[in-house]
Every structure is written in C-alpha cells, then in structure tokens.
Amino acid sequence: MDASADADTSADVDAAADTAADADTSVGHDASPEPSGASEEAADPEETTVTGPLVGTAPDAAPVRKGWRAKFPVVARTVAWTVTGLSLALVFLALLLPTKLALVEPSAFMRIPVEGIFGATLLLMLPTTARRVVAVLAGAALGALTILNLLDIGFNEFLGRGFNVVLDWILLDDAESYLKDSVGDTAATIAVIGVVVLAVALVVLMALAVLRVSNVMARNTAVATRTTLVLGTVWVMCAALGVQVAGAPFASRSTTALVQDRAERVRKTLKDEREFAKVAAVDTYGDTPGDQLLTGLRGKDMMFTFIESYGRSAIEDPAIAPGVDKTLKNATKRLNKAGFASKSGWLTSATYGGSSWLGHSTFLTGLWIDNQNRYRTVTAGDHMSITRAFQRTGAWRTVGIMPGVQKAWPEGKFYGLDHVYDSRELGYKGPKFSWSTMPDQYALKAFEELEHGKKHDKPLMSLNILTSSHQPWAPIPKTIPWSKVGNGSVYKGIEKAGKRPGDVFTNSTKVKQEYGKSIQYSVNSLIDYVLKYGNKNTVLVFLGDHQPLARVSGDNASRDVPVAIVAHDKAVLDRISHWGWDDGLMPGAKAPVWKMSSFRDRFLDAYGPNPGGGTAPASPSASPKATSPSPSAKR
After folding, report:
1. Average pLDDT of span 398-426
2. Among 21, 66, 532, 604, which is 20 to 30 Å from 475 by CA?
3. DSSP character for 449?
4. Average pLDDT over residues 395-399
5. For the chain, how far is it from start to end, CA to CA, in angstroms?
6. Which of 8-17, 105-114, 462-471 comes out lowest in average pLDDT?
7. How far is CA 270 from the centre of its chain?
C-alpha cells in the first residue's frame, strides 16, 4: 500500500502528495505511473472523480480529477514544505529547550542534538507500520518531556529549583488557588484552561510533527540517509574535539541528560522518604521533662512571628535595601528608646521563593524539611517543635494566628497549639489584598483583642504568620492608627487605591520596589505592635520563611533569611550572647549564618536550665534534597 509513496523521491510528488503522506497512503490507477499530484488528489475528500464516459470524450479517457492541490500546485507545494519545516523546527526546539528562562536564547539552539540523529536512524530502519507507531509514541513522549521542561522553567523562575515529578504535582493545585486569590476566579479559570489546552496541544502536535518528518524521510530515503550520516559524523567529531557554542557543547545530548537527571531525582526522592522517617524518629529533646524546658523564659509573653518572603535580598539588594534598611534602623532606635534591645543573625531556609510551611516546620522542629514528603512524615509523628515545648511545660497558653490558613489545619495539634485562629476566626470584614486575606496590622490587632489583651492565668506563647508581603506585592496595605483598624472595612479604600498585580508583577523594576515596600509595611506593623501593646515581659522572635522568588532575589541568590530576637528584659538577650549575633534588627554581612534546622536546639539549650552547656547536640538532618510542595491547608 505504501510502496509507491515510500519509494517516490520526486520533489513534485512529495509536495503534491502531502496529505496522503501524512497518512502514509497512496492511490494508483492501473499499473501505470501517475502524474505529479495524482495520488494525493485521489485521497482528497473534497475532490470528485469521474470515470464514466463524458460527452465529447472517448470511453477510455483518463479519469478527470478536481481538487485545490491540482488547481494550485505551487501553493500546495509551499504548504507542504512549510508544514515539514515547522515540524522539524518543533522537534528541534523540543530537543534543545533549556530548563531555565535565562538560558532560552538563540545560542541554546545552535547545536546538534544526538537524540535527533538516533531517532532518525531508527525510523529509517523500521518498516512502515512500525515506523508510524514509533514516530507517534516518540513524538508524544517528546511532547510530555517538553511539558516537564516548561515546568522546570516555571519552578526555577519562582522557586529556584526544578520540578520534581514525584512531589510537585500538588503544587499545581496551589498555583491555581494563588491565581484565583491574585487575579480573580474568571481570569484564573481562563489561565488554567489555557494551560491544559497547551499541554494537550504539545503532546498531539509533537506526535504529528515526528510522524510528518518520518513520512518525508520515508519518501526521500536516500537524501534522509545521507543527511543523517553527515550529521552523525559531525556530531562525533565535535564531541571528540569538545567544540562549544556560547559555553555549551555543540554536540548536544541535553535531552538524554535531562531524562537521566529526572530518573535520578525520582530514585533519590524515594530513598529520601525512607531515610527521613528514621531521622525524624530521633529527637534530642523528645524525652526532656516539661519542668526542664525553657526555664529561662518563664513568665515571658512569647511571640514567634514569620514575615512572608522576608529574605536576605531585602537587606542587601541595592534595588530593595535602602528602604528596608532604613526601616530596620529606625525600628531599632524606636525599640531602644522604649527600653527594648535586640540581636539578629542569618538562617539558611530549607525552601526558596515559596512553600512557606517547609520553612516554618524546619525552624520549629529542628529537622531539614525541604519537601512535602518530609513535611507529611514529621507532622504525622510526635517530633517536638519549639511551640510544643512551650505547651509541654504547662506554663504557657499556646495559640496560632494564621491569616493565610483558609480551611482545616490539623497541623495545629502537631505544633502544640491550644487554639488556632485561621482567616475565618479573625473577624475580618475588609477586602483581600491579592493573595493575602487581610493586612498584617489587622491580624496583629485581632490577636490583641482575641488573646493578648485579655487576662490570663499564665503567659501567652503565640505563633504568628504574617502574609502582607506575599507575592505578587500589589496592592499593599498602609499602616493606619490602631484605633481605626476596627473590623477591617476601613481597608476597602486602601485596597482600591493600590496598584494592581498585573501592573507590578511583570515589571522587574517595579516588582522589586513593591516587594521592598511590603517588607517595610510588615516590619513596621510588627514593631508598632510591640511598642504599643508590649511590656517588660514581651519577647519577640521574628524571621523570614524564605527568600522571594528569583525575579526579585536574583538567579544566584542565597537561601538566607534574617532572624532577630527582641526583649525588654536584658537577661533574655544575655543568654544568647555567645551566639555572636549583631546588635539591632539588621544583621550585618558578617553575622553568623546557621542552617534553619539548627535553631531549635540552640534555642532550647540557651533558655534551658544549663544555657550554653552544650547538653543538646545539633538536630540531625538528612541532606538529600528532593525538593517541593504544599500543605494540607491553603498557604
């Protein structure tokens, strides 16, 4: 059935038989060869073939065929060559597509992919039916690989790491929720539909493209064989000589390397899941009696506060730092004037650009939790967190202020919180600020009214997660008099007058500026709260959960975040004098940098019965990093 099509090497037949070649079919009449375009016209569903006698014609006259290809042969030939060229380009681009946006430039595609040479060789060797099947399957696989490469680009851009095929699918649901919160349900739905259509189109079009190329190769076997042989020879020579273009090998094997890397990451992820369960079962302070925990903080009202996306870049990036640094210096002066002192340093977060709960859990448990499997493992067990240590003493009431949590959050029990106030319990009646459900100042005021400002028979320990500095950093709330916060309805005008996410997030300069302003707002809200509602027994520990996304912090930014302890009682800071932290809220460039997972044991040691005695070694943390993903509650 395909003999004539596969053997025909005529350029005219190739162009005119385009549609028939895609289906690998040809139609012949009798045994005589047909003129150019005849076989393709026979397959044209729109044509009409007349084989009977016509008026004025002999009974044995040749069939008369009609169709646009016969009428416009030049157009048909042009379309055929264009489709073939586009198919080759699509396959070529897919084989060389980088996994980082910064690398997507013309030089990245000025290489010879060995996978294309191998694929062409295989297709030339196969019989017709097998060739079709292999071409379609290979194209679909290449389409799926392209989707994974695009996910890598997105994850590297936002989270500073590649996409983990085992752990990261759940983040796509979080991305949809983030879009709904940021741009509204309608726009988010359109975006999701567009992504799904693109994914399906990539797989289908890639399969059709490879099939198209294989059909053209089959019709032009001699030319395709010579071309493949030449390209293979050039590839081998360039690989042997180490020829490079823009710092990358001209003889590329990037697709093979990517597949191998993904397979290795899957293997490490599965291995990490087994090993981390053993690590989490070891707890230096797990059996410590409550009366021997946190003896150096008895009677203090403790506030552990995370500021969303508060990273080292906020303090050191020239485009961001001036405003943030000024805010931190002024806040330090204001605290000192009110009788408070502070010390600060750096912690290296387990996450970057997002997945805040991984940073929270790493800081509080003393375990390196850099992926969702680890998070699920530790929160399903009884490994002691800093907050649970306070609960275990029986000397504090423990609460959580979680404006970012919008549904059930069972982790509250794991963290030892007597009560969790999520976004539904804080009484907010104002507008959302993009992703953030409420301004930080309102969340703190609600904390004051619901818990801190009430009389208790014991001190209060609170875990506060502030969200106003969450991307996309538009619109940003403004600090207002505490007496005017009310139920939050006052923020309607502020939200309406603010910038829109679309005007900020896509502009590299504006997004840095607005990010810096959001950090200033969060820091000012927190320090204003301490100055207005704090007292001599107030102790504040605040830090960032992770750096902002790469668009703001930079492609090669560290994972460091600032951490500070504020206290009115000098004895509280005396206990950490051996840490080497800098005075004030702004750590210097040479301040100590610790892994975030080391803080729990250092803190419990410093405020235990034998401060600085080294009774608790650093908590173990498994080093394999199978990155990624999302909590049981929306964060």
Report:
1. 91
2. 532
3. I
4. 96
5. 60
6. 8-17
7. 20
